[in-house]
Every structure is written in C-alpha cells, then in structure tokens.
Amino acid sequence: MYRHTAGWVSVAIIALCSCDLAASTPAPPVPPEPQAASPEPSLALTETDVERDTRRCEAGDFSACTALGVRFADGDAVEQDDERAAALLDRACTGGDAQGCGELGRLVLLGRSGVRDVARGGSLYERACNGGDLASCANLGAMVAEGRFGSGPDEARGYALVSRACDGGELLGCYNLAFMLAEGSEDIRDLPRAQSLYERACEGGEPRSCRNLGLLFVTGRGVPVDPERGAGLYQRACDGGDPAGCSNLGYAYSMGEGVPHSSERASALYARGCDGGDSFGCSKLGELYLDGAHEPRGEDDRVRGLELLRRACEGGRQRSCDRLAAETEP
C-alpha cells in the first residue's frame, strides 16, 4: 500500500472507491467530501456578530442569512444545528444569494439537510455558479467531469467550470484544475501546468494541493524525484489540517524516505490522519499494531489493530478488508 493523492475536492466523497496497489505504486485518486470556499483568515466570532447577522437576516439581508447558516452548520460561536443551517441557507438561496445556494448544496450532498440528494445538490451548485459563486463552479466542475451531475461524464465542461473558478482566484478551483490536468484524459493532461497550479494553491493555503504536489516529487511524476521536498510538502499539508497529508508523512517516516526512519513518529502521524477520517492512516496504523511495529507497544495491540483495519475497510480499503478477513478467520 502506498501513500495516496487527494481526488476532486467537491461533492460526494461520496463514491469513495480506492484500490490498494503494490507498495511502489500510488493508490488511485479518491473523491473527497464537498468543500466550502477556500478558507480566508478571520477573527474569532462573538455573540455580537451572531446577533448582528440574525437581525440583518430577519431584515432581508440574505448574505447575512448565509453567514448565519454557515455558522450553524459549522458550530462556530453557536451550537451546531444542521436543520437550522439548512433553513437559513434555503432562505438565502431563495432570496438570491449565490453563496447561500452553494453552501446549501454542500449540506444536501453530504446528507446533512435530510436525505442525500445528488441531483438537487448539483442543481444548487449550478444555480450558485451561475450567480457568481466560484467555489460552487469548482465543485460543479468536479461533479460534471466525473458524471455525477448531468447526462454523463463531460470532461470539457468540467474543465471549463474549474478553470473559471481558478481564473477568478478561487483556490478550490485551482486545486481541482490541477487534479484534472494531472489525472485526466490524455487530451488535457499537462503535468507541468498541474505542478504550477498545485504550487499556487498550496502557497495560497490549500493543504490538499501541498499533499498532491508532494506526491509528484516523491514519485517523480513530471518532476525530478525529491523525497525530502515531498516530505516537506506532506508536513505542510498535515500542519494545514489535511488528515491524508499526515498519513502520507507517516508513511515517509515509516520508510525513511526524505525524513529519518521513525516508527514512533509514523504511528503518531497515522493516528492523526486516521482520527481525521483518512482510511489510509487507519489501514497503516492497524498494520503496525498487528505486526508488532507500533510504538509504544501495549497489551491490547491486536484488538486495536483489528479495530483500525475494520475502520479502514469500511472506508474503502480493500487491502484492509483482506487482512481483516485473514486475521479473523476461524
């Protein structure tokens, strides 16, 4: 099993499907969860901010309804409440706020506003994109390219949508465009441009781009092999909040590639990735427990290892499913 690259940042990570390959081969891309617009620095919210947005929303300021809805969705300065978030975002979208439509689409695609509805989520992204919300254009482009919205896969339209987002300064669009240029069909594949876009998005604070850029350097795809630079980029991704970046860095420590070999450091990074929802981290950490390579060791290592493999299997790691079956067969 090898470290892996992030897939589309858009809807549905939904069709989570990743296959485990030999240790020398990168795992195929995995579509991740719907994403909001690229993060921007912001001050901590206060109760006054919430009261202000509530008052403005009630007065018909639909952008304030969106801001308030996002806060309830994220539990930021208020108690997390998906139902209230969806109601506020629906009000904003109905009132013509494009970002409100996009944020509602994200909740719909994650199944956080009731039953998950891909068609409705895609339509909301389309409405938001047409209204000028570039993050929604980036998300919609990923859906369209993979055939998760529309009549079937449409790489040309998907490319146009993510390009529009990136050209407008949306880092999420640059990330998705780079992914398409690195992993798409031969008609559009352009590794040097993919590298440039990953660098741009990474420098702008998009951690998944740092991870994918790191993988290019580790594997030498379109660039000279440079495991030290790759590990540094994994570190940057991990520090930026990307769980899979932590898992990839853990793999680097476990193999001594670009960093000194350290089973203890690898274990800690796999745990961080796994705790963040990355199945690769769960898989590798489970293997360490079962193989007696986890540091520090404990009496319950086998139980913990099987539990981690089960999580990885449920997350789509076939290798973990196979190991779990072999470890538990009568």
Short précis:
This protein has helices at 47-58, 62-74, 82-94, 98-109, 118-130, 134-146, 155-167, 171-183, 191-203, 207-219, 227-239, 243-255, 263-275, 279-290, 301-314, 318-328, and strands spanning 4-6, 27-30.
- CATH architecture title of the domain at 226-330: Alpha Horseshoe
* Major sheet strand order: 1-2
> Taking all residues together, what is the mean pLDDT?
88
Strand content: under 5%
How helix-rich are the residues, as a percent range? 55-70%
Instruction: Please count the beta strands (DSSP E, at least 2 residues each).
Output: 2
Structural class category: mainly alpha
Order of helices and strands: EEHHHHHHHHHHHHHHHH
CATH class of the domain at 226-330: Mainly Alpha
The biggest sheet amounts to: 2 strands, parallel
Low-confidence stretches: 10-32, 39-43
> What would the CATH topology of the domain at 226-330 be?
Serine Threonine Protein Phosphatase 5, Tetratricopeptide repeat
- Our Rg estimate from Cα atoms comes to 21 Å
What general form does the structure show? globular
The CATH homologous superfamily of the domain at 226-330 is termed Tetratricopeptide repeat domain
Helix tally equals: 16
Head-to-tail CA distance between termini: 26 Å
